[in-house]
Design a protein that fits this description.
Blueprint: E1 3-9, E2 13-18, E3 23-28, E4 31-34, E5 39-42, H1 46-63, E6 70-73, E7 78-82
Antiparallel strand pairs: 1-2, 2-3, 3-7, 4-5, 6-7
Length: 94
Amino acid sequence: MAIGALLYEGKAKKVFATDKPDQVVQYFKDDATAFNAQKRGTIVEKGVINNKVSERLFRLLEQAGVPTHFVERLSDRELLTKKVTIVPVEVVVR
């Protein structure tokens, strides 16, 4: 599988096209923001941890019968996922 053009970049991840039109690669970054992005920094290995947590949550959802866009974890920082339409919801845990 070839990773293609950057499709999206947000605070926590980048999304890249692949050679399969129905799949994308999510790359998890170490960037961190606070106070509505007034403070910015880097947390070493944050992307690695977020990727592992995401994989675990998607697998738990699938085991419970909830379909997800998860396909597989490609590396410490990358997930292969199905291309979907995003529902614009943000959850902030404090």
